[in-house]
Amino acid sequence: MNIEKSYAVELDQQDELISFRKEFYLEKDTIYFDGNSLGLLSKRAEQNVLSLLASWKEFAIDGWTEGEHPWYYLSEKLGKLSTPLVGADEDEVIVTGSTTTNLHQLAATFFHPEGKRTKILADELNFPSDIYAIKSQLELKGLDPEEHLVQVKSNNGNTLDTSDIVEAMTEDIALIILPSVLYRSGQLLDIPTLTKEAHKRGIKIGFDLCHSIGSIPHHLSDWDVDFAFWCTYKHLNGGPGSVGGLYVNKKHFGKKPGLAGWFSSAKDKQFDMEHTLSPASTAGAYQIGTPHVLSIAPLIGSLEMFKEAGINKIREKSLQLTAYLMELIKAELSTHGFTIANPEDETSRGGHVFLIHPEAARICKALKANGVIPDFRNPNGIRLAPVALYNTYEEVWEVVAKLKKIMEERSYKNYENKRGVIA
Ligand SMILES: *Cc1c(COP(=O)(O)O)cnc(C)c1O
Q1: 213 half-sphere exposure, CB direction, 13 A CA radius
Q2: 253 near 94, Cβ under 8 Å?
Q3: How far, in Å, from the CA of 158 to the mean position of ligand 1?
Q4: Going from the N-terminus, what domains does the chain have, and what CATH number goes with each?
């Protein structure tokens, strides 16, 4: 292990993606390692917001069908641009809604309790919003979540075992909803195996890709996943509240949307204004109402960049950045009480490193005061996400050097060990 800064500089010189860094707005003297919570603004995303505003100014109502990016077709167009990121066929992806609303839509569409099969299988480590949505979907069907929501337990509070999940796929399970990458520990679940095992037992399975999209390649069609959904403001850099996305396997095309609206319509039928819905024969059927066009605009620029960079190259660099970060932490911080709590092997780690430390809240505050933006996760977790498109190996080196100094000088003791409102 070479712990010299010159080695980091050397790695940056060999980096094929380095040219993308200058496309982003990076704050001077700040190292941003929080792209897994909110990705940074790129000049291309900004440009597309401005040109979308200009199209409103210029075309008014005709902007729906005229201009460079007619608004009426934008969700479909960006869905197509997203397909390489999730490994989907044409028409299997639509840019719409948010993570939580898309989950509601997909659960409403795919959860049909029948006979013995009345339960939804999830896990105890998932993001709260997913669990709230699943519970309300059960309640809407008159089912008590206490009995009908099964949450796979973690043995260590950080990760899940594939065998435990498979064991929980019993005959009373109607639907499985799991994250691709766990938001705290960054564990990447074995999506192909879980999908195969679910299907063997006649259970449909969907994944929340919030923490993997834009960071990890997926092959949803090849893996035969039934559905998936995600946000676009984390690794995809779509901006706060940018429009999310969903995938529906083409074998389910034609399935009636659980939550219908006029944007569920086939595009050429929508303005017939009939009271009987003619749903699109694509993933577009799972849209509900008018798309939030101004919140889609940044994605036009952002998804273009992902297309140019290529998701395989992004994953390769991301793995190298996190490997380098973990090696430096082990070499430099071994006496300071940190535990690396993310899985370390390449097949099961996502795009961030997860450190556990009893003083995590105040260590994060000290990092921020020293120009490093980490991400604190209650009660004792620090997420560090070096992002392939805009972070460097030198920044990884700097972060570890700053953290070492904070620990050696105990400067974190100057802060309260308590989280902020958003942490
Ligand atoms: C970020 C995230 C969400 C957020 O949901 P929104 O509807 O976009 O607010 C939900 N689930 C997971 C797993 C997430 O990582």
Answers
A1: 35
A2: no
A3: 18
A4: 5-32+310-408 (3.90.1150.10), 47-308 (3.40.640.10)
Amino acid at 266: A
Q: Is 248 helix (H, G, I), strand (E, B) or coil?
A: strand
Instruction: Determine the distance separating the centroid of ligand 1 and the alpha carbon of 12, expressed in angstroms.
Output: 32
Closest ligand 1 atom, CA of 179?
13
> Which tokens hold the place of 113?
């309790």
List per-residue pLDDT tens for the chain, 423 residues long.
899 999 999 999 999 999 999 999 999 999 999 999 999 999 999 999 999 999 999 999 999 999 999 999 999 999 999 999 999 998 999 999 999 999 999 999 999 999 999 999 999 999 999 999 999 999 999 999 999 999 999 999 999 999 999 999 999 999 999 999 999 999 999 999 999 999 999 999 999 999 999 999 999 999 999 999 999 999 999 999 999 999 999 999 999 999 999 999 999 999 999 999 999 999 999 999 999 999 999 999 999 999 999 999 999 999 999 999 999 999 999 999 999 999 999 999 999 999 999 999 999 999 999 999 999 998 999 999 999 999 999 999 999 999 999 999 999 999 998 877 776
Taking the C-alpha atoms of residue 282 and residue 280, their distance in angstroms, rounded to an integer, is 5
**Token reading at 246:** 């969903």
Ligand 1 pocket by Cβ (under 6 Å): 98-100, 127, 129-130, 179, 183, 208, 210-211, 231
